[in-house]
Amino acid sequence: MLLFSLLVAGSFALGELAANEITPLALNAVRFWIATIVIGVAAHLTTGIPRRAAQSPWRYVVLAGFFTTYFVLMFEGLKTAPAVSSAAVFTLTPVMSAAFGWVLLRQRLTPRMALALLIGAAGAIWVIFRADVAAILRFEIGRGEAIFFWGCMAHAIYTPLVRRLNRGEPAVVFTFGTLLAGAILLTVVAWGDLRATDWAQLPGIVWVTILYTAIFASAATFTLLQFATLRLPSAKVMAYTYLTPSWVILWTMALGAGAPPMLVLIGVGLTVVALLLLLRDDGATTPVRQRA
Question: Which of 70, 93, 153, 283 is 20 to 30 A away from residue 63, measured at CA?
Fold first, then answer.
């Protein structure tokens, strides 16, 4: 999950640069097919793809529906929202994931985990509103952040659903099924955008973003996330997202952008405190027996 947060941060930094050069549906349709091929080859060379993995294919469609929604709304939001601010919205997913974890898996929070989630949410809100107390009081949230919030809601539902729907398939195989279903769904929905896009005239940053998000922010993170969700409580898995704003700041600085104002960094610091609290809480939830 530490590697997951670093790779996800890169998609925010690059996505901000490419979001206005191509439609979110077209970009994600292509990146999902690339990721499907990469993970399909990896699954074939490692665990193989057993026939039983094709049982109840509706599971992959359900998971793909939520995760493709997250990615499409992420790039739609990045058209107007800064990368650091979007990453802060992403850190609200642990709170939502904890709620859905209770609904779907009856995972319960301890007081320390609840406190950590509240601290992390406060830090995220501070960054989202650019450290402007007046804006917080007026609840002036940007359009891009509002759009991406619904994407994060889809991501939060996806996390406990992985454990709920997995029937013992290896993470790489389960990832392949989800990616394939997502690629098919996006192709159908984005067919008009795919045909209308002038692929030969796209700037280089779009292709860099497509390849990065396909290989590192899709194939790799899908596998990492599913590996972790089968072994950790949902809220603790998503706790690592609190590192994303910090990684994004480093990514954007490496890509030539300046650091955010010092007041904004206070919110980033709160998200790191929340992460440390969550990682110390080993008895955070009631264990849930994994389905055979």
Answer: 283
